[in-house]
Design goal:
Number of strands: 20
Shape: globular
Oligomer: single chain
Strand content: 15-25%
Largest sheet: 7 strands, antiparallel
Number of helices: 17
Amino acid sequence: MVQATALPRNEAGIGTALGILKQRFGDRLQTGAAIREQHGHTTTWITNQSPDAVVFPHTTQEVSEIVKTCAAHKVPVIAFGTGTSLEGHVNAPAGGVSVDLTQMNKVLAVHAEDLDCVVQPGVTREDLNTHLRDQGLFFPIDPGANASLGGMAATRASGTNAVRYGTMRDNVLSLEAVMPDGQIIRTGNRAKKSSAGYDLARLLIGAEGTLGIITELTLRLHGIPEAISSARCSFPTVDAACRAVMMTIQYGVPVARIELLDELSVKAANAYSGLTLPETPLLLLEFHGSDASAAEQAEIFGQIAEEFGGTDFAATSTTEERNKLWQARHDMYWASLQLRPGAKGISTDVCVPISRLAEAVGAAQDKAAELDLLAPIVGHVGDGNFHTLPLIDMDDAEEVRRADEFVGWLNDLAISMEGTCTGEHGIGQGKRPYLEKELGQATHYMAAIKAALDPDNIMNPGKILADHT
């Protein structure tokens, strides 16, 4: 279990900064224990570290004022979106101020003819897509949770559609951010490409708030496809399902989504979502295009699946049936918890090259069995990314130790396969021990960038870099 390490506190600076900010923001600065604990909350087993205060800005200028005040007194600043991150990203190991961006939630502009939009960071992906629907447009990044777009950019989120539409890195044209000294920068404009200078947008995307606070995003949009069809197919083994995925990708079928559920996950989905799927490994797919192309993609996949022993193949283009399947997929966390009522679900992810996917998933299943852990697996397997959810009795110290061993082993396995310890959850506090294993000397250059931009280490300290606390 990750016991988040406390960092030295600047008590005098925190007290002074909170006094200034309270005078400026009044009731929009809160110091109650419950709200502070909520803003240190993580949906995993990392210990909670609450900030000293939570402030709710409405504008970029107000964010700048907050950061300038904190910078002047060397007080930590932690950006907060919706709190759905999984690796301790919003904890406050040195105390400080949580900047809750949820009230900066306006869609500022939609340029339908250019397929882009401008939003504040507190807009959630579901709210944006509701806003866009009448214009025949959508934003494709879908991490499952109804996360804020600022938080999704900060963690370089991806999700079920990444195999076709990419990640947040690929769908942010430019952004506005408040830097550690409180200055406001803009990293670009609305042009679809640029060769102008360093790519600061990509530096801030995935930086998890350690280099600045994102206050505005210009996002790439896509037209809602003419036709959307879904398919499901059961397989005798996880290995067979993964090999069907590899063949589908190598064959060039432009699937929008291709998701794996292992036997435990299918069992959980049946019980929680009222489905009657065969309780064997399952692939869920979605195809986008014209009526003809979506049907052709489904047909080609059906042929590939048959080659690997796939059964109960069924395709549908009806919205109701599609939504039922994908809602069941998005409900997997809650469904899995029902496999062991009272247990804590420890969600972790890794990503490996597609050619190693079957080997990695099979090894993860074997290791969980060896450690006597109940650990359902799901994955965005079209890009080699999969998740395990060990279900742990947190009052059983030996079981917690085994779970900790499993998570560490899985991270090391992915790195040994030329993969990554995290495909989409990010580093935060939980994955810090593995970043240098994965990237080696590159992490020292990351630390140099952090030190140059944030010499007092006030921006989300204690995250990502193990050697720059």
